[in-house]
Amino acid sequence: MHHFKRLAASTAIVLCASGALAQDSITVAIQLEPPNLDPTSGAAQAVDSVLYANVFEGLTRFDADGAVVRGLAQSWDISDDGLVYTFNLAAGVTFHDGTTMDAEDVKFSLDRARAEDSTNAQKVLFEDIADVTVIDPLTVQVTLAQPNGMFLFNLAWGDAVIVAPESIETIATNPIGTGPFTFTNWAQGDRIDMARNENYWGAAPALETATFRFISDPTAAFAAMMAEDVDVFVGYPAPENLPQFEADPRFQVLVGNTEGETILAMNNQVAPFDNILVRQAVTHAIDRQAIIDGAMFGLGTPIGTHFAPHNPDYVDLLANSQFDPDLSRALLEEAGMADGFTATLKLPPPSYARRGGEIIASQLRAVGIETEITNLEWAQWLEEVFTNKDFGLTIISHTEPMDINIYANPDYYFQYDNPDFRAVLDELNATTDPAARSALLAQAQTIISEDYVNAYLFQLAVATVARAEITGLWVNQPTAAVDLTGVSWGN
Amino acid sequence: MIRYALGRFASLVISLIVASIVIFAVVEVIPGDPAAFMLGVNARPDTIAALRAEMGLDQPLIARYLSWVGGMMQGDFGMSWTYKTPVADLIGDRVWVSLPLAIYALILSTIVAFPAGIYAASRRGSAGDTAIMGATQLGVAIPNFWFAMILVLIFAINLRWFSAGGFPGWGNPLAAIKALTLPAVALALPQAAILARVMRSSLLDMLGEDFIRTARAKGLTRRQALWRHALRNALIPVLTIIGLQFSFLLAGGIIIEQVFFLPGLGRLIFQSISARDLIVVESVVMLLVFTVIMVNFIVDLTYAAVDPRLRVRA
After folding, report:
1. Is the backbone peptide bond immediately before B115 cis, with ω within 30 degrees of 0?
2. Domain that holds residue B103
3. Contact assignment for A1 to B112 by CB distance below 8 Å
4. Which residue, B25, B49, B73, sits at the end of a domain?
5. B306 assigned to some structural domain
6. Is there a contact between A306 and A448 (Cβ–Cβ < 8 Å)?
7. Buried residues in A125-164 as b, exposed as e (16+ CB within 10 A)
8. What is the pLDDT averaged over residues B194-223?
9. Which one-letter DSSP state was computed for residue A129?
10. Cα separation, A232 vs A213, whole angstroms
11. How far apart are the C-alpha atoms of B103 and B98, rounded to whole Å?
12. Minimal CB count within 10 Å: which of A30, A199, A213, A487?
């Protein structure tokens, strides 16, 4: 042991290079490395975490609070019937390879995403598009088959960014967008580098260069922050360390919301969960705060329906499913299951599911429901639970923004089938008036809460640990993104 | 010697063929559809079908096996599904982390273990022997990932001499070696402990042999007999262990690669299995199997060089 230390020490003295950190560069760590750099194909969120708003831009975009704001489209007109959208594009926009971004590129991108052989993971976003027409280089007209109140929102997704036919072939390894940062290098397995786009059409970012690194191991993440190898960690994987960072003047800790509704999903078509009394009993057996404290170290906001609590249209329906084991047992008795029953509980890898699953199992046991816990990898979970619907209970965070529409699909894995709910959603899709939409969204949230489709647990929180001097970071994650446009080292 | 080598070579080829069939079969039966995994929960069935066709997953199993093996024979490992880059490039990048790391760790462990083992054997029962054996006991018992965390705590977080992890690439060789130092030390410790113990016991066995007594009777001192006669013979078990250790270091750095977030082969396998990037998993595992079989082949040949009797026996 002594030998090693001496050896390590002497090597260190020889090799230790002193390099002062330039204050216009930043190193950002996230947990997962993107499998490739094409935001318009696979569903991997890490692709958006690195590229969204930095390298690629869409017609519209999400801002830090999740509002849909102007992107490459500087303004738009919507016809009275809600079917025709005319977008006026920003002038003087070029892609990083020097080619011009114009209406042809918009048409190319949207047509490619909705094509028959498209491998866009969110193809559903473009389903309502009937036609895309180039009016002139800076004007493009999109015609929908039916009104869609979510259309501008859909266009803000990372999967709807504007790409160019000239660079599409190599997009997976050499992403060419219009954003404020230009992709420069990807050392696979280690880092992705980008540099300021000097020809950016909008306000220039403060940072000269940015590096993304990928650290999924909680201990390694802690070490990398503490050793100041990385300046920012978005989605810090070890909530138990956060108090230590808060107490350290070198760091700041930002805790924000994500779009992840974490639910205990129930298979609504399989006994005994096809019985609403049983589903209601499950929800009353669950103490949300105990799960948040025990599994998430206190991070997370309880939810009573499938909707993000930071959204202005959120309705507080927690009262429908208060923690009440006695009521739960009474409901089970009413359902003819006074002796309880046994159900499968299938858990995907994230800690909210694995740790949360153990706590939920013990809470359910207290009212007489035994669970058989199976831990699954993601690919297994997708096949067994999501595709084959072979489960009783599962815990999962639905991270797509505004995804209450999944309850309108009776084929969706929890198999909720309610024509009334579908009617509300159909009306919502056809409505563009904000007040009317709010009312319909409230109605939709109430229906699924009162039908006890799933047990709604909490809104997943995201923790960002950063050096204290850094400003301009997103606190919330309205979409998977690390938008560096407004980030700087203070001053 | 040539017949011995040919025999070993034939067994090498058979092992490789069997391994390729087993690897392909095992990897293909892992549950989980790669295309569905890549596209996530919002994907439509026709989108998944389009991607499956793009990845060649709609082909029959036998055809895919043959095209995989046929490709590998020509040095073509295929195209990664998720990374969308040639598997050979992926492996090529990672090998230059894992291989130097394994060699670095092996050198460190040998540098420490040989003198320690020889010293302990030549002074059996002395305080030095007891101290070395105690230290190796500890070295075997300490898990390398825990030792790695302690190294990070001391040298990266407190002293700030090293980065906590990551790999800057070989563009700057000194920085690259520096980045591999803590992981190599962490990997080398248990290996050195095992190797030192094997070295010591093997030498002690040899020192009790008749030919050593003969050598002593001819007038050699104990130390001369040890260096001239015992050491060479004691090397056979030590070489076996080094061969095994090298394979372990190359493939088994997976946990250490996680702790130091190094872009090595272990991490590539880990990521590829979770992403169901089967072609990458198959090719990397095959490469590792090939390496292990090759190392054993070389060790077998080295035995023959060290021990002339083996040449005749085969």
Report:
1. no
2. 87-313
3. no
4. B73
5. yes
6. yes
7. bbebbeebebeeebbbbbebeebbbbbbbbbbbbbbbbbb
8. 85
9. E
10. 10
11. 9
12. A199
Q: Are B287 and B72 in contact (CB under 8 A)?
A: no
Q: Strands A393-398 and A341-347: what pairing?
A: parallel
Q: How far is CA A137 from the centre of its chain?
A: 33
Comparing C-alpha atoms, which of A353, A349, A345, A397 is closest to residue A374?
Answer: A345
CA Rg value for chain A: 24
Count, residues in chain B:
314
- Torsions phi, psi for A29 (to 5 deg): -105, 140
Helix (H) or strand (E) holding B98: helix B87-122
B98 or B275, greater pLDDT: B98
Flag whether B82 is in a domain.
no
Is residue B81 domain-resident? no
Q: What is the count of structural domains for chain B?
A: 2
Residues B216-272 have pLDDT tens digits of: 888 888 778 878 788 888 888 888 888 888 878 876 677 888 888 888 888 888 888
Residues B30 and B178 in one domain: no
Q: Residue ranges of the alpha helices (H) in A187-275?
A: 218-226, 242-247
Most B CBs within 10 Å, among A190, A386, A391, to test the B interface? A190
- Site of tokens 């992705």: A192
- The token pair at A107 is 């048409």
Shortest distance between the Cα of B76 and any Cα of chain A, in A, equals 19
Question: Which residue, B15, B45, B73, sits at the end of a domain?
Answer: B73
Report yes or no: A465 and A273 within 8 Å, Cβ to Cβ.
no
- B56 & B116 share domain: no
- What CATH number corresponds to the domain at position B117? 1.10.3720.10
Cα–Cα distance between A309 and A328 in angstroms, integer? Answer: 25
Q: What is the largest CA-CA distance in chain B?
A: 85
Q: Name the phi and psi angles at A261, rounded to 5.
A: -80, 115
- Average pLDDT, integer, range B12-34: 85
Q: State whether B165 and B273 are in the same domain.
A: yes
Straight-line distance from the first to the last Cα atom of chain A, in angstroms, rounded to the nearest whole number: 46
Query: Which pair of structure tokens corresponds to residue A31?
Result: 């947990």
DSSP letter (8 states) at residue A386 = I
Whether residues B134 and B269 fall in one domain: yes
In 3-state terms, what secondary structure has residue A133?
strand
Amino acid of residue A262:
T
Residues B189 and B301 in one domain: yes
Which parts of chain A register pLDDT below 70? 1-22, 491
Are the beta carbons of B36 and A383 separated by less than 8 Å?
yes
Whether residue B233 sits in one domain with residue B197? yes
Q: Strands, E, within A121-172: which ranges?
A: 129-136, 139-144
What is the interface pTM, i.e. ipTM, of the complex? 0.75
B143's enclosing H/E stretch is none
- Which residue among B83, B169, B261 sits closest to A35, beta carbon to beta carbon? B83
Query: Which is nearest to B231 in space by CA: B220, B219, B246?
Result: B220
Q: Is B78 within a domain?
A: no
- Determine the residue among A14, A219, A231 to mutate to test chain B binding: the one whose Cβ has the most chain B Cβ atoms within 10 Å: A219
User: What mean pLDDT is reported for chain B?
Assistant: 85
Q: Dig out the tokens for A207 from the structure.
A: 């940072």
HSE-CB for A179 with a 13 A CA cutoff? 28
| Distance to chain A for B303, nearest Cα, Å | 30
- Cα(A409)–Cα(B64) distance, rounded to whole angstroms? 36
Query: How many other C-beta atoms are found inside a 10 Å radius of the C-beta of residue B18?
Result: 11
Q: Do A189 and B93 touch (CB under 8 A)?
A: yes
**Tokens linked to A369:** 């429901």
Query: How far is A174 from A184, CA to CA, in rounded Å?
Result: 8
Pair B59, B148 in one domain: no
